[in-house]
Amino acid sequence: MAELSTIARPYAEALFATARDDQAGLASWSSLVAELAQVASLGDVREALTDPRLNAAQRIELFAGLIKTPLSAAARNFIELLVSNNRILVLPQIAEQFEILKNRHEGTALAQISSAYALSDEQVQKLVSGLEKKFGLKLKPAVTIDTSLIGGVRVTVGDQVLDTSVQAQLARMRDTLAA
């Protein structure tokens, strides 16, 4: 997977530079890139785009026709670039890298919160408030339920993980006893 992110990075950086200077704004580009990535990740689309019977122009028209959002000239050029370089299937990784660049630019980050039980809005806000102080960033929470945690939460912000789950505590105790 590291190879795909390495391939995606220059495309995401170029797209981000274009989006930052575009009057449509980063939010508009972010939703478009997410839509492009979602379409590119569909199995039938991936199969059609790799069909050797289609030439580049047909692939571009096929892919552009599947996008609901009207495409600007810059967005269409981006799709043409990806198709001509055989990188259209890397769009999910490009979208991921684009979001990272967008969040960094805005001084925000995604906080992936896994909890053993459903959290109320108040609990999420309290947790996010404490995490924002710790990380010094404005966090956007994405909460999921993972019953294998037994209790507590696991928070991932970028490449940092805070794991206060019962599962993690049991694993630490097991390691301590085994040592």
Automatic annotation (TrEMBL):
Q: What does this protein do?
A: This protein is part of the stalk that links CF(0) to CF(1). It either transmits conformational changes from CF(0) to CF(1) or is implicated in proton conduction.
UniProt KW keywords: ATP synthesis, Cell membrane, CF(1), Hydrogen ion transport, Ion transport, Membrane, Transport
Classification via Pfam families: OSCP
User: Which domain of life does the protein's organism represent?
Assistant: Bacteria
Protein name (database record): ATP synthase subunit delta
Q: Which family does it belong to?
A: Belongs to the ATPase delta chain family.
- Provenance organism: Pollutimonas bauzanensis
Q: Which PANTHER family match?
A: ATP SYNTHASE DELTA CHAIN
Against SUPFAM superfamilies, the record matches this protein to: N-terminal domain of the delta subunit of the F1F0-ATP synthase
* Subcellular localization, as worded in the UniProt entry: Cell membrane; Membrane
Task: State the annotated membrane topology for this chain.
Answer: Peripheral membrane protein
